[in-house]
Amino acid sequence: MADVQTAAATASTAGKMGLFRGTLMVAGNMMGSGVFMLPANMSAIGSIALIGWLITVVGAISLALVFAKLASIDPAAGGPYAYTRKVFGDYLGFQNNLVYWLANVIGNVALAIAGLGYLSHFFPALNQPIVLAFAAIAVIWFFAYANILGPQLVGRVQSVTTIFALIPILGTALFGWFWFSADIYADAWNVSGKSDTSAVMATLTFTLWAFIGVESASVSAGVVENPKRNVPIATIGGVVLASVAYVLSSSVIMGMIPNAELVVSSAPFADAARLALGDMAGGLVALCAAMGCLGSLAGWTLLVGQSAKAAADDGLFPGIFAKVNRRNVPSIGLAIVAGLMSRQVLATMSPTASEQFGKIASISVILTLLPYIYSMISVQILGYGKMSHNQYTFIVGAGLVGAVYCLIAMVGSDGQQVRWALIFVIASVVFYSSSIARKRDMEEQHLHPGGVATVWVRYLALGVTILALIVTFWLSIGQDRDLNLRFRDPPPVPVAAQMAPAPAQ
Q: What whole-number distance in Å separates Cα of residue 91 and Cα of residue 94?
């Protein structure tokens, strides 16, 4: 009998992750691509961003604690959408899902811009705003089409490219200190022209970008051994590991590259590697970073397409997102997602890749803050009576810290972007009324949520997408007169010209 029980226990844990693998997975999920452009973005504020990083680490750990606990309370809940819907009702659940989905759609654009920014190391023409924009659109549609043809292949490619993405981050964090200059770091402490408090608050939107996806780190109970113990530890351990890598690598780069050059850099990690070890190292890092960003884009494109389909199957998204092709892939939904991403590329065109990345990342983070706040509050209801008094007090306190952090990050964000995000949230009432009507029709008439898309629907969607892109392009050019077809003039001072001497052996 004992042998039978032992065999059963062994079988139940076979193929599952232990604590160590779970921790590395959590860290790897967040360190895929989130930090590659951030040193350039935050250089406009200064190395005072270190304080913003530390504040964000506290906020990210608070978020991780709450999401880990929510996952252990209800592993099948399904993330921020399900938590919010269960506590606050259908409307806020729907609003949460819509905002969260749009945040991911917009965030994907940042991955394309970051990847191409690093490819500019090999193709200087990508330093031209319009060339960069159309290259980003081409990449977006390529991965959308790849997902339509074979999402399984895309998933395997992403798992490989994530490994390449870790090389620049961890390498810089560990070895960049040999070329770190305290004077360069101190000279750029606060170059924003704002007070120290305002400067720190302005960094929070950017630093939180690196931790977007912390909610997905709460691995399901079916994937890890002893989930009640290992899931929370792996989640917190992974966030801490990612935090150390982020803070060290970002700080090192700000002490390696003079601020005036870092501000206009399209590939800060590659520039740092070139400064330290030469052109070959810079090229290798640029290639690794580009592969990491574009590989992540492939996977996240699949995610937003499938999440829209799931919502459409529930009657909460338009039925067109539920239509599939012969491979059971939501092809029309993926095309719409690619169209929305392409429009965002054109709407955020900027003189440099880092500036455009900053605009997109900021918008994505602002939209993500609302689902995070809802989840932080939800733990008070979902966790009541399911924890000891001391644990409940601690988790609710962590949720309060996480919610306050999100509110502070929102206050420090660009006012115009916050205004448009608020307008969109309010407008979700209109979308909700349409979704409720569709859901009622599905239930009363027993309608299939999707089906196979007809040819005319595909061509109509493509035609509308092309028209929207043309209009957005001309509007963007009209609003941003500093966008031109030539390289930046004068060009930035080469990193090699200001190369710090290697340390004495």
A: 5
* Count of all residues that appear for the chain in the document: 505
On average, the pLDDT of the chain sits at 77
What are the start-end ranges of the H helices in 177-265? 182-187, 196-209, 227-254, 259-262
What's the rounded Cα separation, in Å, for the pair 37 and 250?
Answer: 10
- 3-state DSSP call for residue 452? strand
Secondary structure (3-state) at 194: coil
Specify the 3-state DSSP secondary structure of 212.
coil
pLDDT digits (tens, 9 = 90+) for 147-156: 888 666 666 6
- Answer whether 165's CB lies under 8 Å from 291's CB: yes
Q: Calculate the alpha carbon distances from 295 to 151, 153, 302, 310, 502 in Å.
A: 12, 11, 11, 23, 34
φ and ψ at residue 17, rounded to 5 degrees: -85, 140
Q: How many helices (H) and strands (E) does the chain have?
A: 19, 2
H or E element at residue 451: strand 451-452
Do residues 67 and 218 make contact, with C-beta atoms less than 8 angstroms apart?
Answer: yes
Neighbours of 78 (CB within 10 A): 14
Structure tokens that stand for 131 in this block: 């060339």
Q: Which residues contact 504 (CB under 8 A, 6 or more apart)?
A: none
Residue 87 burial by CB count (10 A; 0-12/13-18/19+): exposed, middle or buried?
middle
What's the distance, CA 463 to chain centroid?
A: 29
The pTM for the full model equals 0.75
Distance CA 337, CA 328 (A): 17
CA distance 328 to 330: 7
The answer to whether domain 18-481 has CATH 1.20.1740.10 is yes
β-strands 323-324, 451-452: how paired? parallel
Taking residue 216's Cβ as centre, other Cβ atoms within 10 Å add up to: 14
Residues 430-440 pLDDT 10s: 777 666 665 66
- Spatial contact of 371 and 80, defined as CB atoms under 8 Å apart: yes
Among 479, 366, 346, residue whose Cα is nearest residue 416: 366
Rounded distance between C-alpha atoms, residue 445 and residue 93, angstroms: 24
How large is the average pLDDT for residues 122-149? 89
Residue partners of 388: CB distance under 8 A and separation at least 6 = none
Place of tokens 């059971």: 328
8 Å CB contact between 120 and 267: yes
Question: For residue 25, how many other CB atoms are within 10 A of its CB?
Answer: 16
